[in-house]
Design a protein that fits this description.
With about 350 residues, the protein is α+β, with helices and mostly antiparallel strands. Helix content is about 45%, strand content about 15%. The protein has 3 domains: about 40 residues, Single Sheet (N-terminal domain of TfIIb); about 130 residues, Nucleotidyltransferase, domain 5; about 120 residues, no CATH class. Strand 7, helix 5 and strand 8 form a beta-alpha-beta unit.
């Protein structure tokens, strides 16, 4: 039986012998049986080097002309690394139970990348057409339930958490709460009630660091609701509503909606989970925002996608996947995916 390998003849299988060097300094090999000679190219090494160089360019700031050496060499370099776009890095699922997981999504072209990470590393990601409870569940069900999950309160995320991690505590992102309230009230509310509620939300955004401060804030919110209860319940009636149209609506609907959002967060115990002393003793500090995902990952990815603007959907996905892979706990060298 013919032996196959780097140091065996591809024709007869005889072990090759060294026969000097080429003019370029490459080792020449000779088969004494069929008298064939030539050099042996380690395609595994060359492909590994090409993939490493490709990922460095993809996650770096250099243009194709800069990394290839010249504008004329860029086309050759693109041809050389074309196969690298087909290498798909995937997260390694260890089954580890994480005390805190932060989740958020990033829109990339016509897809959404759903990301799960701890305060230190990325643990998983999943591509979907949109953020729904089903698509989020496909990501969450791959992991054991954490003690606390930090999220922005998107309906799909909350639905998936209720299905996959029913016993997990939820901490809603304070920055997203501020954004929602600001959108409803604007930065310059015309009513005194709106101004007071906006100021109360600003206190939440700046930071509440003790349980006493949290209790005082909740009392202020309750006092606001009691004081302006009649205002937010006031209705406006249509003079002559058409069939199918509403006959009445809340006069200060946006103000009411902002208050009801805050009231529900307090009732669901999702506003000050990060101050729960029992949980802190058990798992350590709990973040009160999703900034580890938004600022630590999403903003960086948006910058890199902008640097490589003009990419196709598939190429944008590879960039995001390689970046997330590099942010995992123990990222493997790109050549390992060969």
């Amino acid at each position: 039986m013919k032996q196959r390998g780097f140091r065996y003849c591809s024709t007869c299988g005889t072990k090759l012998q060294r026969r000097g060097l080429t003019a370029a300094g490459t080792q020449r090999w000779l088969c004494v049986t069929c008298s064939k000679s030539g050099i042996k190219v380690r395609t595994d090494l060359s492909r590994g080097q090409s993939l490493d160089r490709f990922v460095n360019w993809l996650l770096g700031k250099q243009s194709q002309s800069e990394i290839a050496g010249s504008a004329s060499a860029a086309r050759t370099w693109r041809t050389k690394i074309a196969w690298c776009w087909d290498i798909v890095p995937k997260p390694t699922l260890t089954g580890e139970v994480y005390p805190v997981i932060l989740v958020d999504g990033l829109r990339v072209g016509n897809l959404v990348n759903l990301i799960a990470r701890t305060t230190k590393d990325v643990v998983n990601w999943h591509w979907a057409g949109w953020e729904s409870s089903n698509t989020w569940a496909e990501l969450l069900e791959q992991h054991p339930a954490p003690t606390v999950v930090v999220c922005d309160g998107q309906k799909g995320i909350l639905g998936a958490i209720g299905r996959c991690w029913p016993n997990t505590h939820i901490q809603r992102c304070h920055f997203h709460i501020w954004q929602n309230v600001r959108t409803k009230l604007t930065l310059h509310p015309k009513t005194k009630a709106g101004q007071q509620l906006l100021d109360l939300t600003k206190v939440l955004l700046k930071g509440i660091y003790t349980t006493k401060e949290a209790e005082a804030w909740e009392r202020q919110l309750h006092a606001w609701g009691k004081k302006y209860n009649k205002l937010i319940r006031r209705r406006t009636y249509a003079d002559s509503p058409k069939p199918g149209q509403h006959k009445w609506w809340y006069t200060h609907g946006r103000l009411r909606s902002a208050y009801k959002q805050l009231e529900k967060l307090v009732a669901d115990n999702q506003l000050f989970t990060y101050l729960n002393e029992d949980l802190i003793k058990q798992i350590g500090p709990i973040p009160r925002t999703t900034n580890f995902v938004e600022g630590g990952i999403n903003s960086q990815l948006r910058t890199k996608l902008k640097l490589h603007r003009g990419m196709s959907q598939q190429h944008q996905q590879r960039l995001v996947e390689w970046y997330l892979h590099n942010r995992t706990n123990d990222p493997k060298p790109p050549r390992n995916f060969l």
